[in-house]
Specification:
- The chain folds into 2 domains: 84 residues, Beta-grasp domain (Ubiquitin-like (UB roll)); 82 residues, [2Fe-2S]-binding domain (DNA polymerase, domain 1).
- The longest helix is centred in the last third of the chain and has 16 residues.
- The chain contains 5 helices and 6 strands.
- The protein starts with 8 loop residues before the first strand and ends with a helix.
- Helices cover 29% and strands 16% of the residues.
- By secondary structure, the chain is α+β, with helices and mostly antiparallel strands.
- Helix 2 packs antiparallel against helix 5.
């Protein structure tokens, strides 16, 4: 992931900058206070409220989105540093044919209860699927030279940055496992 291209233009107001990002496939040009986080830009300036503000410290994962295809906690990133980047939120995951197999697996396995963390969980799971497809090892990967086996321990480790206050973890692991197997 490469943050920004250095092309962010100032607006004449020393506290604001222009930033061009692609959000869910749509180019967006924004003028933002330099202190605006990606999460606040998505929610307050673009009306995309899927990513949630849970802890606002990068600890809970409810604000997880994909930045240039990699999982990030959007509450920790200043939006003006992301000029030229592509952001995918939970709203941008489903295609024209409806929900993705991952989203369908979350429904089938009841991988949510209150639903507050679900958008971040689903974006993180999307990142997990991509990491597994690229054979990225994790802290629990046994063989670092072969294909990564998507065991429950592997899935739990990779999803560990996303908390669920309702403790739906077994259901989340089952949903991710099903989506891995469906690939």
């Amino acid at each position: 992931m490469q943050q920004g291209t250095g092309n962010t233009a100032t607006t004449g107001d020393e506290w604001s900058s222009r930033v061009a990002v692609t959000v869910n496939g749509t180019p967006r040009d924004l003028t933002l206070d330099n202190r605006t986080t990606l999460l606040d830009a998505l929610r307050e300036h673009l009306g995309l409220v899927g990513a949630k503000k849970g802890c606002d410290h990068g600890q809970c994962g409810s604000c997880t989105v994909l930045l240039d295809g990699r999982r990030v906690k959007s509450c920790l990133l200043f939006a003006v540093t992301l000029d030229g980047c592509a952001v995918t939120t939970v709203e941008g995951l489903a295609g024209p044919d409806g929900l993705t197999p991952l989203q369908e697996a979350f429904i089938a396995h009841d991988a949510f209860q209150c639903g507050y963390c679900t958008p971040g969980q689903i974006c993180s799971a999307r990142g997990v699927l991509d990491e597994l497809a690229e054979n990225w090892p994790s802290a629990v990967t046994g063989d670092l030279t072969g294909a990564v086996e998507p065991s429950d321990a592997e899935i739990r480790e990779r999803m560990s940055g996303n908390l669920c206050r309702c403790a739906a973890y077994p259901h989340i692991v089952a949903a991710v496992r099903e989506a891995v197997q469906a690939r």
